Amino acid sequence: LISDNLTSYLSGLRFPLILEDSKTEAYFTDVQPEILKDSPLIQNNVSARVIHSITSYCIPEKVFKELPHSAKEEIIKAEIELLDNKIYNLNSITFSYLKALECVINDIFKKSIMKSQSYNKIWFNKKRNSITTFKNHDSDISIADVKTNFSLVSIFRFLKDGHRNNCQITTQAFEQSPKLQWFLGKELNDISYNMDLINLRNALAHDSDFIVDQQTFESIRSTILGHAQAGLINKAYKSYNRSLYEAIYPSNTKRVA
Q: Would the pTM of this model clear 0.85, i.e. be above it?
């Protein structure tokens, strides 16, 4: 019930109603109106409920706010579809989680490089889908001018080449976030290989006959968001900016990952 005209004769009401004006609170003098307090039982905004669920159980709210807008949209979209029991659409939901992870990795990868002394020494060749520390062709563009996301494959290859060649430019690119270089080049690379994330993403993007099974879907969701384990999004941001988690859990940062 939305009440437009509250009067003193309504002070005995006991069922929930929405007070549109705090001045009408005076008609309820016996007890503090509980309806004025936040209550998930009357919250009609589905996105708000989904965000609360994510930031309560998977990703700390401070971290969730750091996510690029595109990643937030993909996660919320996927969670709403789950909330609506659209289990038949596992392909779309799984693809959203993978795109969200890709957006997050690109966000912190680019931020780390742009804050370093190497930002003007790293180039991207679109035709070869490769990130390099030297300009081979006139068509190569500076990483600062790249507006689209890199594929995880190109990021992994860039880090692998830098490690193999002991490239100082690559090392300097992560001078302010050295743990990020290890996370991207080793941990995420290994997880991606073991779970076949690259081929899975390509199949979902290009193969209309491909179908994700329930077990694969649950594994992807759990690994990325962090159900019953430290999620890849949490791990990525913790390796990039540990202070985010120290501010949330000052006494025990290990609780997050």
A: no
